[in-house]
Amino acid sequence: xxxxxxxxxxxxxxxxxxxxxxxxxxxxxxxxxxxxxxxxxxxxxxxxxxxxxxxxxxxxxxxxxxxxxxxxxxxxxxxxxxxxxxxxxxxxxxxxxxxxxxxxxxxxxxxxxxxxxxxxxxxxxxxxxxxxxxxxxxxxxxxxxxxxxxxxxxxxxxxxxxxxxxxxxxxxxxxxxxxxxxxxxxxxxxxxxxxxxxxxxxxxxxxxxxxxxxxxxxxxxxxxxxxxxxxxxxxxxxxxxxxxxxxxxxxxxxxxxxxxxxxxxxxxxxxxxxxxxxxxxxxxxxxxxxxxxxxxxxxxxxxxxxxxxxxxxxxxxxxxxxxxxxxxxxxxxxxxxxxxxxxxxxxxxxxxxxxxxxxxxxxxxxxxxxxxxxxxxxxxxxxxxxxxxxxxxxxxxx
Length: 398
Ligand SMILES: [Zn+2]
Hints:
This protein is 47% helix and 11% strand.
């Protein structure tokens, strides 16, 4: 199908999980180039000019307005810039109008500026139009600047599906000065999204024999430990060395794990819970990583309740302390969802339990009633000795 000058190429690449001895697979491990440092953006003009002369800058309307004085590095290279907002959401309709903007401007490179949805929209647009893409995260809230994956939402903000892309971005510009202007809450959310890598990868891939997946799972463990050890100090001193290490962990290392591990290593119940919650309008005030962080507790609770997993119980207690320390939400109430109806809770649980949901990568069956019970009991104290014993397929030990 051809729309304007853009050819639509939805070619899901085979994941490592479906790899057989004779199958061909493609790895999308890392961006071609990463520029990182304070004022990295100010020095990015030359690298961007190598990719194209007519950038279309994609971001939220507020970000595009705020960033107006920041286009100087592009203008210095005599680049012909145009801007387009990804409103109302990173949705199919928005992508259609962004493709029109590419055609109208005759853009030859896409620059995504902003948070996860802005970057996802820019990456998918570039993929559909077969153009190079530059990602410029303005917060450390997700690893979207790194990955070869875009999430698509409805115009109302409900998660619909994700699209695997052919490659990671051509250039990632991680400018700590830009990240430092974002509210602290975005870094806290990024910590929640990044630490989920361990709780998901260890369940989905903890017993994999594949070299790169073993490497990805071990890096997820390293990422968890860095975050557990350094997050509180980082949040106290924005801009410091320890703060930069935590920003690198959420934006870069979390992306490395997704890249090395591929689809198999990606998500389990944690992100499925997030996806279900996005269909409750009141959840939109909570950031992606905040919902994901809550989703980790729900996943651990499921492992405790359904499987009798004691390691999951102690991992949950450890995380509850960590969340209290850095300000991640532990309950629906803390996510601003204390007043949702039972019907809304059920709807979120049913979406999370959809047949195609990654939730079913858990090593046991889950039905919506069980998920709802887990969702309302994330802070329940561990009841020692009540669980069935001897069942543990996860790697939650440290
Ligand atoms: Zn995420």
